[in-house]
Amino acid sequence: MARRKKTEPASAAGTPLVLAGVLDIAAAQHLRQHLGNALDAGDPLRFDARAVERIDASALQLLYACVQAATSKGMSCTWDGVSEALCTAADLCGMRDSLGLTGHAP
């Protein structure tokens, strides 16, 4: 069984929101809280998802909602790093473009 890691919130503007470990339905509430806090801060969103080991559709939906909310607020969203697991899951769900992952290779 893969170990679960919690996401770490951005501590200051320009610091990426680190996504790591297993992001699944069990981690969804925690992930939602951190994504909401990042949106509320109003700073451009930067994600570092290099350490994502596994991600399910619930976490992808949360990331999608966050990216859409940020876009509607005029906030930019960038990815500093993306794991193979995230790219594969996004591809399987047809969400690579929606998440802004086009051009990112693990």
Secondary structure blueprint with pairings:
Layout: E1 17-23, H1 28-41, E2 45-55, H2 57-72, E3 77-82, H3 84-92
Parallel strand pairs: 1-2, 2-3
List the keywords.
globular; single chain; 106 residues; three-stranded parallel sheet; Transcription Regulator spoIIAA; disordered N terminus; alpha/beta
Number of helices: 3
Query: How far is the first residue's CA from the last residue's CA?
Result: 22 Å
| Average residue pLDDT | 88
CATH-derived topology = Transcription Regulator spoIIAA
Q: Roughly how much helix do the residues carry, as a percent range?
A: 25-40%
* Sequence of secondary-structure elements: EHEHEH
Strands ordered across the widest β-sheet: 1-2-3
Number of strands: 3
How many separate domains?
A: 1
How large, in whole angstroms, is the Cα Rg?
A: 12 Å
Quaternary organization: single chain
Q: Please name the fourth-level CATH homologous superfamily.
A: STAS domain
If classified by CATH, what would the architecture be?
Answer: 2-Layer Sandwich
For the sheet with most strands, the description reads: 3 strands, parallel
The top level CATH class name: Alpha Beta
Shape: globular
Q: What is the beta-strand fraction?
A: 15-25%
Low-confidence parts, pLDDT < 50 over ≥5 residues?
A: 1-6
Q: What structural class results from the helix and strand content?
A: alpha/beta
